[in-house]
Amino acid sequence: MRAVHRLLNTGHTQVVDADSSGYFDSIPHAKLMKCVARRVVDRHILRLTKAWLLAAVEDDDGKEEQEKRVTTRSRTNRDNKRGTPQGAPISSLLSNLYMRRFLEGWRRLGHQKKWSACIVNYADDFVICCKHGADNAMDAMGKMMNRLKLTVNEEKTHLCQIPRERFDFLGYTFGRCYARKNGRAYIGTKPSRKSIKRMVDSVSEVTDRRKGWLPAEEVVRRLNRKLTGWANYFCLGPVSPAYHLIDTHLQDRLRRWWCKKHKVAGSGTSRFPAQYLVEELGLVKLAPRTNDLPWAKA
Fold it and tell me: Which of 129, 196, 231, 246 could disulfide-pair with 7, CB 3.0 to 4.6 Å?
């Protein structure tokens, strides 16, 4: 995130917001194994890696042991000689290794120097930050992806001009922000609307009224684990508005769950104030945190 922010603030304001379609399922096994063989000479490791790519995936769907079945996706991957097994410990390593072909090719073909176009990626998600020629960079990216036997989602891949427009990357929204003290505009980040909505939906699922049979301590423990993980990731830029929104929704949902569990009429706002939820039940509160880091305000 800091790499993208640094590029945007050094003139790389033409952004190719790329979206690869089914990246993990599209990686060709033969070319991937060549990438591995350039770095690993032990034939036993190579054989094991190849077997891992072809291994069947069992999915029990919560059923008994005898009813487990091999998923359709795993059969397709084996038949087409494509794809890495998602969820396997080695999958992320292999996907990054194959993506390196694209990154190295981009540099060796001179695209990075030609358009001052720098790629920032995490696994299959990437953006191309350019100083000029973003449309040419997007065309070159599409051609390279075709050569690598990968598919680009053309509907979701688009050009973005910062700061006039915004784009989302790895759960954050990049674009124009305003300082709370003086209203000065700057290029920064904040949690995206989709990320906030996913967290809100997750809180609603944990506090569903049908889960009234759970002990309050267990519900609070589950909520705290989600909140802590979410806040540890979304801690860059002006995050306070998102924290306040989630706190408000969380406390409202927990009050309603508590009232439903103990058959108390009303919404519970006066009976179970925020202080009670935090001090008595031990609920984590995000809003007091000061995570608006200076680098996102520069």
Answer: 129
- CA nearest 203: which of 170, 252, 236, 242? 252
**8 A C-beta contact, residue 28 and residue 152:** no
Region at 98 (left for phi over 0; alpha for psi -120 to 50; beta for the rest): alpha
Check if the beta carbon of residue 20 is closer than 8 Å to that of residue 157. Answer: no
Confidence of residue 200 (pLDDT cuts 50, 70, 90): very high
CA angle 172, 235, 2 (to 5 degrees): 60
Give every CB contact of residue 247 below 8 A, 6+ residues apart in sequence.
285, 286, 287
Q: Which of 232, 231, 270, 234 is nearest to 251 (CA)?
A: 270
Query: How confident is the model over 275-288, as pLDDT tens digits?
Result: 888 888 889 988 76
Query: CA-CA distance, 78 to 53, in Å (whole number)?
Result: 8
The one-letter amino acid code at 28 reads: P
297 pLDDT band, cuts 50/70/90, is: very low
pTM above 0.90, yes or no: no
Cβ atoms of 169 and 160 closer than 8 Å? no
Quick check: 167 and 175 in contact, CB under 8 A? yes
CB neighbourhood size of 263 (10 A): 7
pLDDT on residue 212 = 83
- Indicate if the alpha-carbon torsion angle 258, 263, 266, 269 is positive or negative: negative
